[in-house]
Write a structure and sequence with these properties.
alpha+beta, 9 helices, 9 strands
Length: 292
């Protein structure tokens, strides 16, 4: 994505969001798509059983005629197969060859982005996309689907209407040290707040059950996991926010263990930097393409 936008100047982005995707998959269309690749009768019979599985709701068993079973292990797979034929192949085989400029599609489950170098191409696709999805019973969210022109304005904070969120990151145009336009990414505020809320709940629950050394050891594993995903170029500020807020959460909940508030901020600072250090932020994904 960074290469396509920064290097190939695909600045017109369709940021799409579908309404109730997993609950809208048409079973008959899905079976027709599966017919194209899967001939094994045993596998098809198993998939049919998953699709026909009843759902207990308000004391009654319901048998849906569309959608995939909530929480079902097969749901991500068959949902991905469905969109592969509805969206991916349609865009690559039928749409791209008709466009004047270059384009790309990036999809993860039901989240996808379409990018274009030509504004007219983007407008044409924006017009036909709802019709294509509607043909298979899918609907775009009218308020969350939008066409962005990333080439008009730059800035992380000044122009939030020129940003878009994808896979936990907020993407925005900025300028590199060499003065060139580049797509940068930072942890989205929604995902950061959610991660901190979960971390707070975890520390609160285990603060009295685990020794301090074990507590921080497991906490470091969580920090490692966060940095491994969000540790990308240009995201240092958000990584340090997560790190510093973790120290504040320790300060808060360790002083709720009962008794006196013995954990002063200076003591917490020594605990997390000298005695049993917290893992500090680290950039794991630094692309040369991010430094044009």
């Amino acid at each position: 994505l960074s290469r396509e936008v920064s290097m190939n100047r695909m600045r017109y982005i369709i940021d799409a969001d579908m309404q109730n995707y997993f609950g809208s998959i048409n079973h008959q269309c899905l079976r027709e798509f599966l017919d194209l690749k899967i001939k094994d009768g045993v596998i098809r019979k198993m998939i049919d059983k998953w699709l026909k599985a009843g759902i207990l709701e308000n004391g009654q068993v319901m048998y849906p005629t569309e959608g995939t079973p909530q929480g079902g292990s097969i749901s991500p797979l068959i949902s991905n197969v469905f969109l592969h034929y509805v969206l991916d192949e349609w865009f690559k085989e039928q749409i791209q060859r008709l466009l004047k400029g270059e384009s790309f599609i990036i999809r993860f489950a039901d989240d996808f982005l379409l990018g274009f170098t030509n504004k007219e191409d983007a407008l044409r696709v924006m017009e036909v996309l709802p019709k294509r999805l509607g043909k298979f019973g899918l609907t775009l969210h009218p308020e969350k689907t939008r066409l962005l022109d990333l080439g008009e304005e730059k800035g992380e904070d000044k122009h939030p209407n020129k940003t878009f969120d994808f896979l936990g990151f907020t993407h925005y145009m900025s300028t590199s040290r060499k003065g060139k336009s580049i797509l940068k990414r930072k942890t989205s505020s929604k995902k950061l707040n959610l991660a901190l809320k979960r971390l707070s709940d975890w520390i609160k629950f285990y603060r009295q059950q685990l020794p301090i050394a074990v507590l921080i050891g497991e906490l470091n594993q969580k920090l490692h996991g966060h940095y491994a995903y969000y540790g990308i170029a240009f995201n240092c500020r958000k990584l340090h926010t997560y790190y510093n807020r973790t120290k504040h959460l320790l300060h808060k909940w360790l002083n709720h263990r009962g008794g006196k508030r013995v954990w002063t901020w200076n003591k917490i600072a020594k605990l997390t930097t000298e005695w049993i250090p917290l893992v500090r932020p680290k950039i794991y994904h630094s692309y040369q393409l991010a430094k044009p």
